[in-house]
Amino acid sequence: FFFKIWQEFISVCVGNPRLVKRDQWRKHVDYEISLHASTNSMCFRKKMSSVRRRYNEFVWLRNSLENNALIMYLPQIPWNPFFSLRNTGHVLQRMKGLQEFLESVLHTPLLLSDSRLHLFLQSDLSIAKIERCALGKTKYTVAEAIQSTGSNCVSLLEAKLSGGFDCER
User: Fold this and answer.
1) How many distinct structural domains can be found in the chain?
2) Are 26 and 47 within 8 A, CB to CB?
3) Residue 8 pLDDT level (bands cut at 50, 70, 90)
4) Residue 154: which domain range?
5) How far apart are CA 103 and CA 1, in angstroms?
6) Where is pLDDT greater, at 2 or 115?
7) Is residue 4 one of the residues assigned to a domain?
8) Which among 23, 75, 88, 145 could disulfide-bond with 104, CB atoms 3.0 to 4.6 Å apart, if both were Cys?
9) Are residues 111 and 117 in contact, defined by beta-carbon separation less than 8 angstroms?
10) Tens digits of per-residue pLDDT, 111-166?
11) Gyration radius of the chain over CA positions
């Protein structure tokens, strides 16, 4: 799916659901988010990225965007009170709804200025670290966090900035 935003194209795909078992009782599904922005896009630091997020992180993103957008209508994310990890239909339906949510968000120019959105889509930072980074409470910037993702350096970025490691970009 491509959207024309200020002569720019942004494509997002939510797919590749994966069941993650933390132990016998705790399991969740995460989804791969692939983003491709046109070469002339000024909205995104990286033109191509891929991260994995779980449903509760999408819930956080929507709430965060809603708090920042105030009076703006935001699309809902899919919710099923009878959701089952074992039901492939439920997992695929949720995945489709999450994709539609992100497509709608990326089609809204006002939301494209939110650093939490960029960190959510293009970094593998946890939600807590996204919040801290967006508030300027980390040793690294939003741009540094995004640029470091995918190069196995995100977790080492703080060490580098503390004088510990030299991270190739």
Assistant:
1) 1
2) no
3) low
4) 54-158
5) 8
6) 115
7) no
8) 75
9) yes
10) 888 999 999 999 999 999 999 999 999 999 998 998 887 644 333 344 444 444 33
11) 16
Give the CA angle between residues 158, 159, 161 to the nearest 5°. Answer: 65
* Residue 146, C-beta contacts closer than 8 angstroms, at least 6 positions apart: 45, 46, 49, 118, 119, 122, 123
Cα-to-chain-centroid distance, residue 102: 9
Q: Are 154 and 53 in contact (CB under 8 A)?
A: no
Q: Taking the chain, what is the end-to-end CA distance rounded to the nearest angstrom?
A: 29
- 22-58-71 Cα angle (round to 5): 155
* pLDDT tens per residue, range 27-62: 899 999 998 876 555 667 678 889 999 999 999 999
What pLDDT is recorded for position 17? 94
What CATH number corresponds to the domain at position 128? Answer: 3.30.1520.10
- Indicate whether 15 pLDDT > 90: yes
Express the helix, strand and coil content of the chain in percent, nearest 5 each: 40, 20, 35
